Amino acid sequence: MCRGWESNPRLLHHKSRANHLATLLHALWTASTFTPALWPRGLCLVINCVQCLLIEGTAFSTPVCPPAWTAIDSSQTCIRPYYQQMTNWTDARHLCRTESADLVVILDQEMNDFLIGQVNSTMIPYWIGLNKNSEGHFAWLDGEEMVGYANWAAQLNNQSENAGCGQIYTDFEAGSRSWFPADCTQQAGYICEKLADDGKEGSGTFVPQNCSKNCAGPSKACNKITGVCFHGCISGYEGDTCESVCRVGRFGPNCAQRCSFNCAGPDNTCDSRTGNCLYGCGDGYQGGACTTECEPFTYGTNCSQHCSPNCAGDKTCAVRDGRCVWGCAVGYQGLTCDMECGPRTYGANCCENSSAHCGGPSKACHFKTGHCLSGCDPGYTGPTCTTECAPYTFGSNCSQHCNSNCGGDKTCHFRTGRCLWGCDAGYHGYTCDMKCEPYTYGERCSKNCSENCVDSGVPCHYRTGRCFWGCDAGFTGITCEFECWPYTYGANCSKECSSHCGGPNQTCAPTNGHCVSGCVKGFTGDRCDTGKPSLTVPHHVASWSSGRRSAFSHTDSGFEP
């Protein structure tokens, strides 16, 4: 340890900055031909594992501060409270640094009491140089945790999780000013502190050639003792003395800016000075810093791909993956609408299904219009096969007509052609397209031709049952269902019994004309047609014979007109 470190009050203020001071002064020492005895005003340097600076009692005799700043003898610094401009902790520190200062660091009771005396005339809180480090512990501006003196308020219950910065405020329970943790975004006054001058020109500031080349500002000036750059760091560097290269993912002056999240590669890495992405841009972005989205209708890596012409609406797509913003045009599907609809789908985004009545085994339809590619199933018509056949038509594309032999209103089933009301007489079959088989006729061909028809292969008409070749001997009528009337016989009953038949009725057999009761006197033969009649026919016989002719005559020949 440096001799006198703990006992010299003028060094207590700089204790937390020891590493910065030692590093800076060690560099000066190694470059100098001076010996410790030759340093002005008894400045003594001791370098060891702790590295510290011992400023003897006569180091700074009279602190010199700019106008509006107040000198503190014990710390050889100048302070200035700001209460007219309320701000958050981060902005307060920035405002102090524009004055070549920083938020005040309080390392002893004497300095704390002095500050309270400076701000007691106002009731507002004031930011000081305390905030939580990465471990969540309060530390002064150099990042080292607090050791030694502290003046926290007695009651610190119910602290907010966001209370990460320190301020001086009134402790109403204690009736005095104390330190309080507060939300860093809270609005408060602030107290700035900077090193005092010893009265010599330029003694409070290093000349530019001794400051870091990474200091910003026209003069690249820095604090004479600590090396803190007054105007921050140039692009690519950070830290009080601007010797640290930006962390990964940061760039610009003081490394205050983040690399674009659109940078490709690990951790969105970019150039620490310019912010240009080192590995190019992620999908959807372009430009050195990858902050410019792809132009309309382009997407992907370096915006080298074009939106699909099958995108719907204004044809735009997402800049990263080419996904069509308004879905797909009719007939297409997929994220980028580059696939035609499947065999049985069509329309916008392929949301429509082809008709179940499309023809062919695949039921395929046109991917845009939905028109069936293989025609329609039986019973349907139209481009999309959604319309049933009109009455009296049926089959594939409704190209067939119901059979004219259908019964009733002549309608048939729109798919199969089956006659809905059966068949007209003389026809049978599903569609009534077959005539009755030989020897049958009528509705459903349910009747048989008469056994009395003359048989020559097709004995009767398939619709009416009319015997084509007339009736067998002894029968008459269209279908030969009637036996001959009395006094007639033969085929179609076209012949009359002989007037010479005997018996009271003079009847004869209908098939062959044989007289049933024999012959009248004078005649012989089966039909009594052999003999010689008497010259005179009895009156009653002649008149009866004439009457029966008229009474039993048949005008029906047995054939249809």
Automatic annotation (TrEMBL):
Q: A single GO molecular function, which one?
A: scavenger receptor activity
Establish whether keyword ATP-binding is in the entry: no
**Residue intervals of the C-type lectin domain:** 74-193
Which InterPro entries does the UniProt record give?
A: C-type_lectin-like, C-type_lectin-like/link_sf, CTDL_fold, EGF, MEGF10/SREC1/2-like
Q: What does the UniProt keyword field contain?
A: EGF-like domain
Entry's PROSITE patterns?
C_TYPE_LECTIN_2 (PS50041)
What lineage does UniProt assign to this protein's organism?
Eukaryota, Metazoa, Spiralia, Lophotrochozoa, Mollusca
Q: Which organism is it from?
A: Elysia marginata
Query: What name does this protein carry?
Result: Multiple epidermal growth factor-like domains 10
